[in-house]
Amino acid sequence: MQNNDAAIRWQRRRFYILALLAPLLLLILGDILLSSTPVYSTPVYSTPAHSTPATPPPPLTPMLHAITPAAAQSTEDEPRPVRAYLTVGLLADKPDETPVQHYCPPDDEVEAAPGEMLVFCYQFFNDSEITFTRHTIVDIFKVILENEFYVLTPASGVQAVTTMTLSATRTNVMTWTAYAENGDSASAFDTAVVIVPTLVATATVGQTPGECADAVRLDLLSAAAVEFCFRAYNPTPYDLIVHRAIDTAGNELPLPDDLTLAPGETFTITTSALVTEPVEYGVVWSAQTATRQIPMTSTAAANVRVPHIKVALTFARNGGDCRYDSLTVTPGTQVVYCYAARNDGSATFQWHRFTDKSFALDPPFSAPHLLPPDQAVTVLITRPLTVTTTSYVTWYATLENGDTVSNTTQGDVFVVPPATIEVNALFDSEDGKPRIGVSDVAIRLLDAEGDSQTRTTGNDGIARFDDLIPGVYTLSVVTSSLDSNLHLVSPITLTTSVSARATISLTYVLTGVLPIKPLYIPFVSG
Length: 526
What we know:
mainly beta; Immunoglobulin-like; five-stranded mixed sheet; 2 helices; about 50% strand
């Protein structure tokens, strides 16, 4: 027993000696950094001046520490060989005179706006009798350091700092693993919380005045009064103040001037409306925290459907896709009229009929067709046009009970005199001889809508693009059509604009060697 007591006393003396020598060791170390990586990107280690840490887990200053066994174990049932602490704060709160690599926020929780720059401080204390030489730090976002060399002797500490931004509330979990030269390792963990305040708005709709329903969509068989309900919920640990609620129409909904939403509380407001056609009615709810006045916004909307049909008229030229709300063509162009109806209401339609007043001789379209909600039907009619025409379309849809719903639209087709672009492909012999036309050169024409067509030059070296509407066109030589001995002097691509009735001439100049064409001589028998 006496030998054991002597051993214990010797261990205590050794720790006291180390504690007394710690300040001297820190002075010798000076401002040695484990990394010279630039600030604000990769974490760096630092060795600030000595201070004595309080009982864990107190806020720790960004420095290397000599930790006494009593301080390390005062709140622990069992002594730990290593300890790690993770703190977080706002970069804006850092004292100006403190370098970022020396700054360690005092808390493990911070309130931050989305995108606000944060500082995470990772600290590690060696309470064992092992000297660690390699360190790996990992959190939920990334690997902070991997197998980084740093000699961490017993009863000392070290820290790393990194910066980042977050857009939502997150709990960061840090793992620090230290390795000794003999392969031994020890790990410690800690967490820090970044709270990005949020506001949750919801919208529902029903038909009971003054009460909130649970549905976000209401289907009606006819026009009726409804009750919209908007709720604002505070999921953050801070009071929310300065509330505003703006509806879809831009009107401000009445809220109490002193409205304060405590954490976990909900505020509800209802408003009535007469709905005669499908409507999506919503709210933009804004507030700010009472602590840092961080603003936040949330949106929500509810839908009401009644029997309704939506009609559209689009056009295409020469059998193309119907994608134009209005169209410009030349006389005689075959124009495709696309009459489309979409059931954006609450009930299925059984029968359909539509008329286009601009074509009085056309019989009105009428046919049975089941059209459930959110489905569409399209009818295509092709007509050659010679004059500008405005169509006035009315679509009638009939319900199972015999009620009819209708809607109207209109569209324009403008007929204008055609324009022409003439392209010349000329060979320049560079010996003073007159230029001659080059045949079989392919020219591609691209219009402003992205449609293209290709013509090939004839024996005279000319390619013509007729029946063009006014606009801007881009022409380009299809280089694969050129003989290998021919070379373009002009740019491959040319751009021009044309107006009605105009003829525009463009020239491509080529050099090199003209291909020899075989001469055809008819065979005459004697």
